Amino acid sequence: MKFKLSVLFFIMVFGITACKGPGGVRVIKLGHGLGVTHPVHEAMVFMADKLKEKSNGEMIIKIYPNQQLGSERELVELLQIGSLGMTKVSSAVMESFAPKLQVLSMPYLFTDDAHRDIILKGPIGKQLLLDGEDFWLRGLCYYDAGKRSFYTKSKPVSSPEDLKGLKIRVMESNTAINMVKNFGGSPTPVSYGELYTALQQGIVDGAENNPPSLFTSRHYEVCKYYSINEHTAIPDIMIISTKVWNLLSDQEKQWLQEAADESATYQYKIWAESVEESLSEMEKAGVEIIYPKHDGFREAVESMYEDLKVSDPQLYAVVDQIRKTQ
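The chain above was modelled as a monomer; its predicted structure follows.
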């Protein structure tokens, strides 16, 4: 009921966002759930600056961070009705709206960073960005969201066996849920904005994420064990409502796409710097960082690929194409 009221509020107050205002300036509203110190937020600010520069002030992006306008899933739903222009979303959350993006959540999909970049910057990645258009969502670019690993409160995770009996927070993603089950843990979907409290109160025993997100969220204050098993490398995606995209002129679309692409290049650079800084600062704060061997984790989830081959041959064909592209 609360979310329905918020949607009604947006429709009444904003109407279709990105309409031109006084002086012919087009303002696009961008909401997301990250803090202002997060490198992905910094990339969005970079994109907004570039767009203003390219358009000579004719297009402006207004950014609303920290879940001011709703949770990640709620923001996606606002894009679908055109009440919000843009948002950053994990490709895992997009599974419900763009089924083919599920492949990017598969554990140990990429052999290394170079393989990931070949896929995301090549034809496969570009096609996946458009997979949500039937659901009024268009991907503009990928942001590096690093590699996700487990962090826990009571004990370190050195093998899948250590996850047994632990409630692990996951995103609202069937792939993430199945992955944690295969590892032996109990997957528990929790909103990212509510996770700190959930960890404090023992609603969950741990979670999984990349180093900058663990650091900027301050979850390390509760979880003192970080096990770098790097089970997934799920990118973030900058998406725009197709209802907003279709309002733009060809020139405006070009300005926005160029600004998004340049922000992605910038974000990849500052992301790498942020990973090193985050790990260093967390170690100083008393977090024990463990580097377990990946072999046992890989073996525990290999059955997910066999299951996908049977349950969804078309989706498995995309996975197979990714694995064969080097």
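Residues 148-233+285-324 form a domain with the D-Maltodextrin-Binding Protein; domain 2 fold (CATH 3.40.190.170).
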